[in-house]
## 1
Amino acid sequence: MDISFRWLSSYVEHDWTPKELAERLTMAGLEVETVEPVGQSLDGVVVGEVKTVRAHPNADRLVLCDVDLGDGDPSQIACGAPNVAEGQKVPVATVGTTLSLPDPDDPEKRKELTVEARELRGEASNGMICAEDELSLSDDHSGIMVLDDDAAVGTPFPDYLNAHGMPSTDAVLDIELTPNRPDAASHIGVARDVSALAKSELQRPEVETPSESGAVADQVTVNIEDETGCPRYVALRVRDVDVIESPLWLRRRLTAIGLQPRNHVVDVTNFVLHECGQPLHAFDLDAIADDTIVVRSTDAETTFTTLDDEERELPEDTLLICDAEKPVAVAGVMGGANSEVSTETTDVLIESAYFDPSTIRRTAKALDVQTDSSYRFERGVDRDGQVWAAARAAELIAELGGGTIVPGMVDAHPSPPDEKTVALRPDRLTQVLGTEVATDEVTRLLGAIGFEIEEGEDALHCTVPTWRPDVSIEEDLIEEVARLHGYDQIPEPERVPVPSRTPHQPPEETLERQARGLLKGLGYREIYTNSMLRLDRAERFNVPPAGSDRAPVVETKNPISEEMAALRPRLLPGTLEVMHHNRNHGQEALRVFEFGRVFRRATEDDAPIVPGYAEHPALLIALSGPHAPTGWDTEPRDADLFDLKGTVETLLDDLRVPDLALTPRDGDAGTNGTAPVTQHHIDVTAGDTPLGTVARIRNDVAADFDLDTPVFVAEFNWAALVDAAKAEQHRDYEPVSRFPVVDRDLAVLVHADQPVGPLQDTIRDAGAPLLRRVDVFDVYEGEGIDEDAKSVAFTLRFGADRTLTDEEVDGRIEAIVDRLDADHGARLRR
Amino acid sequence: MPDDVDERADIDELREQIEAASIESEEEAEQFRIQYLGRNQGAIPALFDQIGDLPPEERPEFGKRLNALKERAQERLDAAKARLKREEQAGGPDIDRTLPGRRGFRGSTHPLTQTLDEILRILQGLGFSTYEGPEIETDWHNFSALNFPPDHPARDMQDTFFLKDAPEGEEPRVLRTHTSPGQIRIMENQEPPIRVAVPGRVYRNEAISYKSFCLFHQVELLYVDEGVTMAQLKQVLYSLARALFGDDVTLRFRPSYFPFTEPSAEVDVWWADEESDDGGQWMEILGCGMVHPNVFEAVDVDPERYTGYAVGMGVERMAMLRHGIDDIRIFYENDVRFLDQF
């Protein structure tokens, strides 16, 4: 919201510069985003009198003027304006003056010019008679500016402007108004805060308020059918108006805050809106059938042409202003083209109403328009500001354009609200702020912004002004006092109390931090990807974990674009995007991980926090490209499934996931008709609980992301993993064995198709209880071995809480070999 | 050609060989000994055997030179053996130590994680527990319970994503627009005193640009107890800001508006910028205030007995300030050349 510094300052005295004022307002809750200077200094421009005008001998479109500048001999100045005439008082930029002129090539820009003594087509010209736009006073370039006849020749022009109450320079403050401050949506509203801050009286223009009834009430009928939507409707009438261009001071007020002047009636309604915050509408009364206003809501969809000549579809239940026959305005939003004031208008009906905020908000949203009027109504205008604003407008319309104010008014106000009083306990104020504000100061501050205060026994009883709809409880008053007193007056205490309990860190948090550290150490980079993606991609990747039903993807009703219409059912698609991006930018080794929430519609098995949707934290680790950085004796190869499996085993071991099993899943088929995106699955479980899967991305899927090296991915339900691991986080000490261990190697020949995992399981089983660990150190097929066989070599470590004898170890080895033979047909390789 | 010339030349040649011979291992040392000093085939003993063939007047001179060569060979052998022994005790001969090491890949945590961790670490020191709430929220938790009236302009402050297929007859489901619904969830489940931080991802349906993304991260603080004051709020915020941005950071605490706090405030840090006319600018880092009584009433906490403060801060904003990042979208691009800097 733009506020003109000069305009504002006409209602309250203060000695701040625009920047200082901006700082004070910001610190009092009206945040000033920018302060833009407008206008120019006009030093060197003086009042001159055109003594003679004669034709230029060498130019048809120029005349030569002798202009008295009050410095002795008149100066000869060439002028091309059509309206220059003898006897006029005019602003003259004297030689040496620098002006900022409109750029003829670009209306948005201006460029500097220093006026010089020069010859124009052979005739001397010593200065420049200026038009309003050349002085940054308006956009008017139709002719030179003509001043009051009684202006003294030689007066510096800035002094002339000051004397007319319109200094040449101004500043515009852009205030970011918070929704709780409708009272500050005007110059007087902001001035009210300034008066409290500057300890200076607010000076509101004096207006003669008309009495209810009178001639207007006899001539105009107002009928409110929807009292909820329109609790109050005030109407005034100005007759015999001559609709003209507004005077410069009024046009300057409007252009300063970015409004385009139209005609004086419309300009006055806009001026009063920005002066006091009450939106007004001026109807051409001749266009109002039967001089009757009906305020009602539509009961069906209606088409209506607003004064911007847009044909609009009004939904059912839109609040309308109608005459005896037809709609004439969308209440609180915009007037209609059929009743707007034009230069032909002579009879003006001024509407000044209070419309229900949520009604106007609904309409403005439905029509997708925000006007200066709807902006204020939907926040809540002064509940009792209608009469003053209407009278102020009527006076200005009549004063500027002739016309007669018809005595009286219509004030349809079926149920005026009661006064609102809120108690403020000084003790409570101190208790909330943590500092004391003297009661005198509280009274002064609240008084300055319109509260009437009565001191009670232990509370101040504050009558809330009608322009503060946001104030209804004690805390609201505490905030008013605090912001005007100054938040910077609140001390920062030396010491503060803290509850005597140990802060709790959830295990998700600690384990997540641990996993991040480990994965970072293993050379993976953490990524953060968008939770929203294209629906078709979300569907494609929505392959349920083994054994569960496929729950539908979650969609948003109002996506930013089709690219973000769904929520990710898993982290994988986002990761592939990141791998794609980095591969395109020259990264060979792609090693990433991400923690994030994934979403599905809830199924019967889910017990989500928010019914309807299942959401759980997930962890993804992915890998593609070289298995190790290039080195001078490193054998290059692409990372494979076992590189990722190794990462997963290291991680889960570090997180102490108990009863861990990594089991290859049979078959690669998708579930429930979904085409698979991964293959070579290894399911990861803790006991009976599925934790996640390690797999290879299918080549056709990888190709869609331009990834030409094999891509491997591990995805976990992080919540399930934490659940499984959290009980294991506390460890009791186990004594370390002080007896030596015995290491033995064992190589067996098995059928080439025999998986190694079960051999290891068998060895563990048969080697118990002496076998401490078993590792695979070689798998070999080829020369020296039967064609359909392979050799698998293990290294075994035995130990116990005593010194083992060779016989004991030999016995275990024998048992292991026997079992390997019996269960897997394995033969000892010698 | 006379013999004596030959033999003298032999000595010179042999000396060159002995000086040049490589003795870098025990094997080479032994070979050296056999080749030059060996009693049977050694080159030096062989020359001694030929002394008799020389004219008598040359013999003393020749013998003297040959003895010197023998001593020199022995000296080289002894020195090499001593050196080899020293090397063996120390761990082998010298190697090319300029070859690069065998490295693993460098990993990294995301800059947002680093900033969030830093914030949570500081808050834990200030006695805050951690809680995480859901990203899909009910309209009640995200808005109504936080004192956003229906049809109120305050709802426009946060452009909201609504979800399709909400359970029939129930209130709308939204992607949370802030971490503040975490306040509601905690107070629904726990009696004061409550002192908790709620980190998490939030969503806004806004045009994407260098300064706004459709999602970002926040940390919410909530402290509810008897006698909590705005002065205490100021203290905790200033402590946090100093810990994050340094002790000499310039801050301001100014009034603002949030439906769920009253009084409400925002905190700005002064960011020096030599290019700017004003020498810098105020950058908003967080919003906060005293918990609104209507919020307490929504979760059955007695607003007469308890007061509280709540704070919401943007993790991206903090990370951008800390690292001088000027485009929020870069956090979600995950370019390794960006990630590698953290």
## 2
Amino acid sequence: MSEPKKTPAPAAGGRAATKKELPEHFKAYKHVWVFVEQERGQVHPVSWELMGAGRRLADKLGVELAAVVVGAEGETIRNAVAESFCYGADLAYVCADPALTDYRNEAYTAAMTNLVNTYKPEILLLGATTLGRDLAGAVATTLLTGLTADSTELDVDTDGSLAATRPTFGGSLLCTIYTLNYRPQMATVRPRVMPMPDRVEKPMGKVIELPLGITEADIVTKVLNFIPDRESSKSNLAYADVVVAGGMGLGSPENFQLVRQLAQAMGAEYGCSRPLVQKGWVTSDRQIGQTGKTIRPRLYIAAGISGAIQHRVGVEGADLIVAINTDKNAPIFDFAHVGIVTDAIRFLPALTEAFRKRLSAHSRDKLAS
Amino acid sequence: MHIVVCIKQVPDSAQIRVHPVTNTIMRQGVPTIINPYDLFALEEAMRLRDKFGGEVTVLTMGPPSAEDSLRKALTFGADRAVLLTDRFFAGSDTLATSFALATAIKKIGETWGKPELVFTGKQTIDGDTAQVGPGIAKRLGLMQVTYVAKVAEYDGAEGTVTLERRAEGGTQVLKSKLPCLVAMLEGTNEIRRGTMADALRGARAEIIKWSAKDAGVEDLTKCGLKGSPTIVKRVFAPSPRAEKAKFIEVAEGASLPDALIEEIFTRQPALEADLTELARGF
């Protein structure tokens, strides 16, 4: 066990300074970077969502937006780079090496810290996926800089600092976090929190390549196998058009089937609030909220969910939010568009039936015409 | 073998209330618990100890009252508990926290033998950052594997560990070298109740309390607020939307579900056709 070797000079005024007094050696840090996450031939869509957010920050700062693509040399990387320009990047940094084929913390951390130390970005954004969170924590510690996890809003302050807002205290309040005197300012954002920007066909721009600098022999961790999830166990919750979810107001695990039945009648995905997962009523892949999935459906129906902030931040991107709750003062009615003050347990079966009738009646009309 | 498990005492978030006027957290009377995710780490560590022999040391940083959580961990069956407590640690962000914990783990290693494994939970339920585990690993130069669903193999002689890691779209099976930091995923095991002997021992055992100096911290500027690159500038409750929800009510005898459906399709006209299309498939 050894201490990290690199220790940058301390910031003027100490770390605790609440005023921006950026030390001289950090002033060269410019531009906004987005880590483009790709694994097994697929770019994670959160990368493009971040590209949209990064574009807004870069424009406000009047700097360039760069895509950072790390992986094994090949078609996947070339596509990821080309796509980055279509989603708004001005340039791309690439670190390609066979040792980066599968995600391993050591190799990816080395690639990212090399890139940052060489080309010095002021802001670095990553998706808060299992890969992105594993990587971001390691990179931030290696660089000894600040990192804000699971940001729900990103903005640039008047002094040019990144203002990253996230829920705090288990999701009961929001807080805005700054990394005033260290660079880069790092933040992760969960999938679906930021809207997907439009893809605009664009030619390739400037690409800067940097070698990894270490070889496979230097990397201790080996990937023995990858077992893909079974198709049946995957949920499309984050990307569904219609989502129905239940909360503690359902009263018992048995009543959760009322949510599933409505979802089925509508061809929707189903989900739940955090306490149901903590109680073991529903599996964690169905959790909606800050620590679960963020959704952006056209219609979201929340049954028996009180609407804590940690839930709110996960559903605010929905076009239409319908809340069903017995308590007319429940916080969910502060951000729902349409509310019904009633007992979800009795209302859900009636709603399911009504939807079935309405949708099948239309099908018959269509078939007849 | 020696295993260190890092735990955190957290407020039971299900019972946190926000003051309606001042928008501050009402801490009084909120019970504290061991961060639930850490229990999976503790249990996994104890299972390895039971199988291969050795000791499990639990470590936490916090106020003196965090002793309660350490004592609880001892009653579950941990062998030793270390509480890192000092006003110099107050206001630590994840980087400063990982510095303090890493320094203490080094000291634990010097005192009771170098740990081969350091366990943490996936994240805490109050901070939810999942950053302290990776921070500790990097500072101590440990291998880092997070979101671990299973410790498949441990080979002390060879100095390796095989882990099943939750990745995007599947499970990654990794073989890494010891010493290694493992952040355990939830639902991977169930914490044991602990034996009567453990309960008695836990109640009586000495909790080892270390100040920053005791833990071997030489540079206090790396601790607490001073050692934290991030600054929380503002804590606030979200502003309610300008307009409140429109409440749907119906006259006696009319159908509330039908009224709601009408409202939904009036606001989202394209949705009706799309859902009908979908329903035909059923």
